[in-house]
Amino acid sequence: QVQLLESGGGLVQAGGSLRLSCTASGRTFSSFRMGWFRQFPGKERELIASIGVTGRSTYYAGSVKDRFTISRGNAKNPVSLQMNNLQPEDTAVYYCAAASTPGQYEYWGQGTQVTVSS
Predict the structure, then answer these.
(1) Which tens digits make up the pLDDT trace of 22-58?
(2) Distance between CA atoms of 80 and 13, rounded to whole angstroms?
(3) What span, in angstroms and rounded, lies between the C-alpha atoms of 36 and 103?
């Protein structure tokens, strides 16, 4: 069974940092573009960062640019997200996902809650 599992979420004060990791099982994702999404209550998931196969191609949403850093890892942990200077508006459920076709994310984790207190 192919699975992605996020970890590293939690409660942090404004200005703090968290590092999210994504653990893969059932297959490798070395040939997939990896992305991090977040979802606010009552809203659709939004792509906040993605990284290409080689790690050279990255994308950041304007709301996280210069604060979050996406990076590729090994086969077991194909992607992580370093989040710095977190703010209350970053409070959301964060998901990692994998796309074999650009823009078509077909594998998803179950999400991890990030809560930032003011």
Answers:
(1) 999 999 999 999 999 999 999 999 999 999 999 999 9
(2) 21
(3) 12
Q: Rounded to an integer, what distance in angstroms lies between the CA atom of residue 99 and that of residue 103?
A: 7
Return the sign of the alpha-carbon dihedral for residues 17, 60, 51, 32. Answer: positive
Distance CA 98, CA 38 (A): 14
- Would you state the structure tokens that stand for residue 44, as one six-digit string? 């659709």
Q: What pLDDT is recorded for position 27?
A: 93
Residue burial 10-44, b: 16+ Cβ < 10 Å; e: rest: eebeeeeebebbbbbeeeebeebbbbbbbeeeeee
Distance CA 118, CA 107 (A): 33
Please give the pLDDT value at position 102. 84
Q: What is the pLDDT of residues 61-106, one digit of tens each?
A: 999 999 999 999 999 999 999 999 999 999 999 999 999 998 899 9
Residue indicated by tokens 């994504």: 22
Structure-block tokens of residue 40: 């606010």
